[in-house]
């Protein structure tokens, strides 16, 4: 499993810690820095899948648990299990800049706090001390974002697709869906029963509104933001049926 053990430097002053992260270098660097500050670091690296068993068996005061994808469903199952079997262990999630949903999910699972991967060691140590004292350890701006999302779920950052959809007319949405399906101007015109010159104009307006320079970029943007899923399918007629 590749677990690395370390001993403390300042005796009873240090916190009994575990650092559990898939990224060995990150885990070992953080463990080394915390050891130098007098904490007793029990483990420095282990796969996320084995995190819960490791923490439950060693029962540290505080566990720093790394995650690369805080918003992914089930990501905080190890936290739930640790808190169920070792409720006295304070779990601090260590991860990238999270979506507010990621923060909310971490706390819902029972985490004591969330620390960003790029946080300075002083900030990590402050979070550890807070967690050991039973306080919530999270930067105010992250907590504020989480509360905003819980109170206003419609204002989610991934609602980009909805915002773009509202900029387009129903006819332009249909044009975009057809562009994303790989239809050329002739097919778009035939399928919608309009002249090719009109179809070209619609395509240009769609590109302009989306702020992209090509049909390929428009299709990629629509797919990435979920705009196509929201728009729904359009009828695809044989060329003769729509040409009149």
Automatic annotation (TrEMBL):
Keywords: DNA-binding, Transcription, Transcription regulation
Species of provenance: Streptomyces plumbiresistens
Record bears the keyword Acetylation: no
All copies of domain HTH luxR-type, residue ranges: 161-226
Name of this protein: LuxR C-terminal-related transcriptional regulator
Classification via CDD domains: LuxR_C_like
Domain Response regulatory, chain residue ranges per copy: 16-132
Entries under Gene3D superfamilies matching the protein: 3.40.50.2300
SMART domains: HTH_LUXR
Keyword Transferase: no
Pfam families: GerE (PF00196), Response_reg (PF00072)
InterPro entries on file: CheY-like_superfamily, Sig_transdc_resp-reg_C-effctor, Sig_transdc_resp-reg_receiver, Tscrpt_reg_LuxR_C
